[in-house]
Amino acid sequence: MNPSLKEKHAIITGGGTGIGAAIADALTKLGVRVTLMGRRIEPLNEKANELLDAAAITVDVANEESVKKAFDQAGDYDILINNAGFAESAPANRISLEHWEKTIGVNLTGVFLCSKHAVDMLKKKDYGRIVNIASTAGLTGYGYVSAYCAAKHGAIGFTKSLAKEMARTSTTVNAVCPGYTETAILSDTITNIMSKTGCTELQAKDQLLADNPQRKFIQPNEVASMTASLCLEASQSITGQAIAVDGGETC
Q1: Pair type for strands 242-245 and 33-38
Q2: How far apart, in whole angstroms, are the C-alpha atoms of residue 191 and residue 180?
Q3: pTM for this one?
Q4: For the segment 30-70, what is each residue's pLDDT rounded down to a tens digit?
Q5: Torsion of CA 70, 86, 136, 193, to 10 degrees
Q6: Which of 202, 212, 214, 237 is the most buried (most CB within 10 A)?
Q7: Rounded distance, CA 185 to CA 180, Å?
């Protein structure tokens, strides 16, 4: 346990499953008390019950009033992990406005609203961390997910800008950019490829790993480990970075 983090409190959006749940595990091991936020209370409660002194609060990160209510309920906190995400594939000419707005809302507006609410509190502290879980889709382009790429590119741009604004405070702001990670989103992507192309599951996976030198999917705990490392006191000089966890895909 890292003694410097023992009294810290973290908010993790999208914290009930996948990468968010893995981050909750990693921070809890460092002595951090976590509050898990998301749209569905059942997975949040299930995960919170596995952890020591964890809380679960529902939130719609794309709704400012919902964010304010949830964060006020959480109370004082030191760490914000913006992990809530949504991805759906479609060619650009078939993306509906509803699809576009939902993708931007969850993946970009949510990062903005949660960070906006956190800034005033974190500015007053002698320690603070904001980590945005972006994606390699924020570092490069992928076909058929242009809305998602636009949102994640925006999230990285926001990260870099906010890091400059917070540079004279004790709060760092960084982005972690996973490649294809073994979560429900990846499972949905594989199923979608299979249904639209008629290929097998193995062939679908091979398509996704074609540009990955390590030829393997990322594990949630690998993303969590990088995220937790950015929360350590020793990482105080790391800010404004977009760090890829992708098996060398974007190097």
Answers
A1: unpaired
A2: 14
A3: 0.95
A4: 999 999 999 999 999 999 999 999 999 999 999 999 999 99
A5: 160
A6: 212
A7: 9
CA gap 195, 214 in Å, rounded: 26
The helix/strand/coil state of 56 is strand
Which are the contacts of 187, defined by CB distance < 8 A and separation ≥ 6? none
Q: What are phi and psi of 94, to 5 degrees?
A: -115, 10
The span from the CA of 61 to the CA of 151, in Å, is 14
Exposed, middle or buried, 142 (CB in 10 Å: 0-12/13-18/19+)? middle
Cα 189–Cα 85–Cα 54 angle in degrees, nearest 5? 120
Task: List, for residues 80-115, the tens digit of each pLDDT value.
Answer: 999 999 999 899 999 999 999 999 999 999 999 999
Q: Is the pLDDT of residue 77 over 90?
A: yes
Report yes or no: 46 and 208 within 8 Å, Cβ to Cβ: no
- The residues, any chain, with a CB within 8 Å of residue 113's CB and separated by 6 or more, are 61, 62, 63, 64, 67
